[in-house]
Each structure stands twice: as C-alpha cells, then as structure tokens.
Design a protein that fits this description.
The protein is of the alpha/beta class. The chain has helices at 3-23, 28-35, 39-46, 54-64, 69-78, 85-96, 115-125, 131-145, 163-166, 172-187, 236-252, 256-275; strands spanning 99-104, 155-161, 192-196, 210-214, 221-225, 230-233.
Amino acid sequence: MANGSRQAAWEFFGAELKRRREESGLTQTALGMQVFVSGGYIGQFEQAIRKPQLDVAQRIDEVLQTGGFFERLCRQLIDDRRYADYFAAVVELETLATRICEFAPTLVPGLLQTAAYARAVTLAANPFVTDEYVEEKVGARLERAAILGDATRPEYWVILHENVLYIPVGGSTVMAGQLDHLAEMMRQRQLLVAVIPYSGGAHASMGGQLKLMDFEESPPTLYTETEYSGTLIDEPAVVRHAQRTYALLRAAALSPEASLALIESAAEDYRRCISTT
C-alpha cells in the first residue's frame, strides 16, 4: 500500500471511529475510559494523528459493538510488508511513545538515517534485489523519521558507540552527509545524542542494540534485535534491567557537547577523504 493510500485508510479509520462513537452517544473521554486510553488519544485516533494498537482497536470493537470492524481494519493497516513481521509493531509503537531511548553499537538508528545511508545499508544486506525493493525500504525508513518533526514527537535519547561514526557505510560522501544530518538535528534540539568513545573500553550492552519506549498510559516496552529477529518485551523485571543498562551506558558516554564535537570532527575527516580522492 502506498504511503498516501495508507494515510487515507487511517483517516477513514478515524472518521468511522468518530461516526460510530457519536452514534453510541459517547464522548471521546467516555470512550477512552472504557478502552483504557485518554480522551485526547481517541481524538488523535479520529484525526489520524496517532494510530491505535491492535488491542485498543479490539476494545473499541467491544465497547461500540462493531463486530470486529476496527480490529480487521487495524490488522490490514499494520500488515506493512515494507517491514519484517517482528518490526511492524515497533513502527506503530514509535508513533505512540512519549520517550524513546536507543543504543546503537554499529549503525545509525533508522529514525536518523539519511536516504543515502539507508540505501547503502539496505544494499549491503540485499545485494541482488531490484531498485524498486531498495527504494521501498528506504522510503519506509524515511517515513518513520517523520515522527521526529511532528508536534507530538517523542523525547528522543540516543547513545551511539564511536563505531557508528567510523564504519564508512556507503563511503565518505554518504558518511559526511549522514553525520552532518545528525549534527544538525542535535543543534536543533530534536534529540539528545551521547557517544561512547573507543577509549571507554567495555560497556554495559556489549551484546548489542536496545530500544526503550515509554508511553503515556501503557507500561514501558523494551525492543531488542538480532540479525534475523527482534523481540518486544514489556515484562517489568526485564524492562527495569534494560533501563539500568541504559543508565550505565549514559554514564559511560561523553557529554552531548563533546559528542557533537566528535560527530562534527568525524564528518570533517570524511570530507578530507573526499577532497583527496
């Protein structure tokens, strides 16, 4: 489903939700109380600003007695083949999160990737695919990043290992552009970035990346990923352990100011490489 038609479908979802809610004589607040979200969230669902999770759609069906209509529509819309099955739910949760805390040991996180960087990453893992496939994946990644420019954007914390700055994904030109993009977002205060330097040695997440997401009315969730699968976890003890790990990573990282200087220095290194070739 193309981006425009998908958004139109979510707008239809919202319009139907409003129509059927009003037919039932419920305010947004009254419906929200019965499905365990705020009235403001119901309003944002109706305006297609936010997208409901599947369990919320199921509860809406129960309250409004719509025979599974909203569940079926929600399933259709979140069945996005641009993403791996295990990641599609993460994309939806990103749009609902009030805060995202991410640790990236080797790659710039998807929400921060430029088109050129995302294209290089996609081709590295899929060397025999068509250009159409690559552009679909790149477009999906850039679409995800739109949440950072939204009025309801989450508070976004990112910890990078210095590896991320010096693995030349796509070559010097691509890396210079990617690091410039990251630095500009930092200067615009769209996110907070801290870098763990090589000199820091071992750190608290040597096993790989992690993403923590907080929500207004739902429990915090942990997402971890390996090469071929990913796992969403909301078990409180595991999430608390991951939160402690993230706190240790923050303690091991440079300050945001020093991190920005390091990122800008790495971008200049790549530009010097371009000028000498």
